[in-house]
């Protein structure tokens, strides 16, 4: 019997240059999972450096922060988290080829922070 394996690759979710945050700002990123044919898997995204909930992740520049969320759907109604979040992961069955998922990002309207370069690091976990 062949050994099951999976690999993952992703492009960053970039919100670009933003001014005043008086309306929501949406963007997308891409994630590809390649698993052995027939292997069932789930894909989870952790809470980032702040270990936050999927819709309350934090982009940070020092002590200044911007709240943002990552979602599984284009309506941004299904938060994408990890196994600790109810229905928080994506799932699939391997085909031996890369299977693509879109990561939908949103910065909700909020008080605008000081200008800066804000970032976060998300860990992708594929469980199979």
Automatic annotation (TrEMBL):
<dbReference type="Pfam" id="PF05229">
    <property type="entry name" value="SCPU"/>
</dbReference>
<dbReference type="InterPro" id="IPR007893">
    <property type="entry name" value="Spore_coat_U/FanG"/>
</dbReference>
<feature type="region of interest" description="Disordered">
    <location>
        <begin position="78"/>
        <end position="97"/>
    </location>
</feature>
<protein>
    <submittedName>
        <fullName>Spore coat U domain-containing protein</fullName>
    </submittedName>
</protein>
<feature type="compositionally biased region" description="Low complexity">
    <location>
        <begin position="84"/>
        <end position="97"/>
    </location>
</feature>
<dbReference type="InterPro" id="IPR053167">
    <property type="entry name" value="Spore_coat_component"/>
</dbReference>
<feature type="domain" description="Spore coat protein U/FanG">
    <location>
        <begin position="2"/>
        <end position="125"/>
    </location>
</feature>
């Amino acid at each position: 019997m062949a050994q099951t394996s999976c690999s993952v690759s992703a492009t960053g979710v970039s919100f670009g240059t933003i001014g005043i945050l008086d309306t929501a700002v949406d963007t997308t990123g891409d994630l590809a999972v390649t698993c052995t044919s027939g292997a069932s898997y789930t894909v989870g995204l952790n809470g980032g450096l702040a270990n936050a909930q999927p819709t309350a992740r934090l982009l940070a520049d020092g002590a200044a922060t911007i709240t943002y969320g990552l979602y599984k759907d284009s309506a941004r109604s299904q938060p994408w988290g990890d196994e600790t979040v109810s229905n928080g992961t994506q799932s699939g069955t391997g085909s031996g080829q890369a299977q693509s998922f879109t990561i939908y990002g949103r910065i909700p309207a909020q008080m605008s922070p000081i200008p800066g370069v804000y970032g976060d690091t998300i860990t992708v976990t594929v469980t199979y």
